[in-house]
Amino acid sequence: MNIKEVVTGFTIDVIASTSFGTDTDANGDRSNNNSFVFNGVRLFNFNPLKLAAVYSLPRSVLKSIGIRTIFPDDSLEFFVKLCRKIIQTRRRNKESQTNARKRTDLLQLMMDSFVYDKDLKATNYHRLGVDMDRDGSLNEIGQTDFERKRQTLTEDEIVAQCMIFFVAGFETTAATISHCIYQLMKNPSIQDRLYDDLCKQLDHEPIIDSKCKSNDLIEYCDTLLNKMPYLEAVIKETLRMYPPVIRIERRLGVNYYKLGGIPLVKNVLVEIPTIAVHYNPEYYPNPDRFDPERFMPHNRSKLTPYTYLPFGDGPRNCIGIRFAYQEIKMCLAQLISRYRFECTPETPDKLQFLNGSIMLNSRPFPVKVIKR
């Protein structure tokens, strides 16, 4: 079977529910009639020429030739319109909704911090905030100013955040799960150890279903998410070998800095090649070998700071890092608990990656699935 196709359906369902408040059945309905699934998959079919133009031409030129983003315009517009439609529908139904009926998805959480554009202008919210010193530390301000600090989101900001969450959490998570399964197939001893650990840590009940009691589910999630270092190590090693984003970009925030003899000025774009860092034998001995032991608690002291960058690092790392880890852990735990994954004669010795993408995305590979 094509495991990437299956986990892509799973991640679409998760993002649709948690970000857009929309229930989909991506693995059950793969026809083009399911607009959410169709546009979700199509959103990541990048046009190589468009991608090259975005990364090589100035914004003024891109604007003149009608290029706004690297994504297909019609699929991007579909999700923007969907967001606005859901917001408007929930706003109309707000009076009749009770807290018990209100969805607790990302969209609703942001709507609870919503402010109308006309109110924004009337109250000068956009001009309010905490003053900062040049060195970035907070100034002391009065209580009145603090209370007036902007704490709300406009409709455009809500739509933008939903899109960021979708783009960052859909294809990247699906790729990580499929890459992890590939390595578990190629390393059956690691897969066996992970399965045994799941059974041991979860009291021989690693599988959850709709019949689980609330307290059992809470205990299960707490153990899975917080008390399983080997599962976390397997995921982290997968992300080391296959970071979803192949490079990180940052603009220099200081007036001048010299890096390795190269002078850098303020606002210059600095690109960090994630792959090169993750495969540097100085930081990770035998970097081509899949070795979760690197990230076990007893080996963490050996890791060099700022050399593990699948989600970036520092105060501006990926905002969805915790969500991604939770989603990947839950998915892998259920898959490994139910099935054993093995190579087929057609399984490649090494993953083949797609060209013309900003993400590390492998070509589909066959998997033999055996029910436990």
From TrEMBL:
<comment type="function">
    <text>May be involved in the metabolism of insect hormones and in the breakdown of synthetic insecticides.</text>
</comment>
<dbReference type="Pfam" id="PF00067">
    <property type="entry name" value="p450"/>
</dbReference>
<keyword id="KW-0472">Membrane</keyword>
<comment type="similarity">
    <text>Belongs to the cytochrome P450 family.</text>
</comment>
<dbReference type="GO" id="GO:0005506">
    <property type="term" value="F:iron ion binding"/>
</dbReference>
<feature type="binding site" description="axial binding residue">
    <location>
        <position position="318"/>
    </location>
    <ligand>
        <name>heme</name>
    </ligand>
</feature>
<keyword id="KW-0408">Iron</keyword>
<dbReference type="GO" id="GO:0004497">
    <property type="term" value="F:monooxygenase activity"/>
</dbReference>
<dbReference type="InterPro" id="IPR001128">
    <property type="entry name" value="Cyt_P450"/>
</dbReference>
<dbReference type="GO" id="GO:0016705">
    <property type="term" value="F:oxidoreductase activity, acting on paired donors, with incorporation or reduction of molecular oxygen"/>
</dbReference>
<dbReference type="InterPro" id="IPR017972">
    <property type="entry name" value="Cyt_P450_CS"/>
</dbReference>
<keyword id="KW-0492">Microsome</keyword>
<keyword id="KW-0349">Heme</keyword>
<keyword id="KW-0503">Monooxygenase</keyword>
<dbReference type="InterPro" id="IPR002403">
    <property type="entry name" value="Cyt_P450_E_grp-IV"/>
</dbReference>
<dbReference type="InterPro" id="IPR050476">
    <property type="entry name" value="Insect_CytP450_Detox"/>
</dbReference>
<dbReference type="GO" id="GO:0020037">
    <property type="term" value="F:heme binding"/>
</dbReference>
<keyword id="KW-0256">Endoplasmic reticulum</keyword>
<dbReference type="InterPro" id="IPR036396">
    <property type="entry name" value="Cyt_P450_sf"/>
</dbReference>
<protein>
    <submittedName>
        <fullName>Uncharacterized protein</fullName>
    </submittedName>
</protein>
<dbReference type="GO" id="GO:0005789">
    <property type="term" value="C:endoplasmic reticulum membrane"/>
</dbReference>
<keyword id="KW-0479">Metal-binding</keyword>
<keyword id="KW-0560">Oxidoreductase</keyword>
